[in-house]
Amino acid sequence: MKHDWQIPNLSCGHCVAAVTRTVHALDAQAKVDIDLPARRVQVESDVETARIVAALTAEGYAPKQAN
């Protein structure tokens, strides 16, 4: 399943590492692509969307559906 989100407070390399680490904690095989200037995150994973959103939100990176 492919997820495409905007994360408004994604602003630095630490944020990128935290988002990547959070997704990989749920699915070590997930593919995570992050466009930092656009604050856009694309994740390919078999994990339910709600679980990924909840984990990212708990880390302070609440994703919003990308346009």
Task: Describe this structure in a few short sentences.
The chain has helices at residues 13-26, 49-58, and strands at residues 2-6, 31-35, 40-44, 64-65.
What does this structure look like?
The protein is of the alpha+beta class and 67 residues long. It has one domain (2-65): Alpha-Beta Plaits. The protein is 36% helix and 25% strand. The chain has helices at 13-26, 49-58, and strands spanning 2-6, 31-35, 40-44, 64-65. Helix 1 (13-26) crosses helix 2 (49-58).
Write the layout of secondary structure elements.
Elements: E1 2-6, H1 13-26, E2 31-35, E3 40-44, H2 49-58, E4 64-65
Antiparallel strand pairs: 1-3, 1-4, 2-3
Helix pairs in contact: 1-2
Strand content: 25-35%
How many domains comprise the coordinates?
A: 1
- N- to C-terminal separation? 17 Å
* Structure summary, number of beta strands: 4
Poorly predicted tracts of residues: none
Please tell me how large the radius of gyration is. Answer: 10 Å
Indicate the percent of residues in helices: 25-40%
Give the neighbour order of strands across the main sheet.
Answer: 2-3-1-4
Principal-axis shape: globular
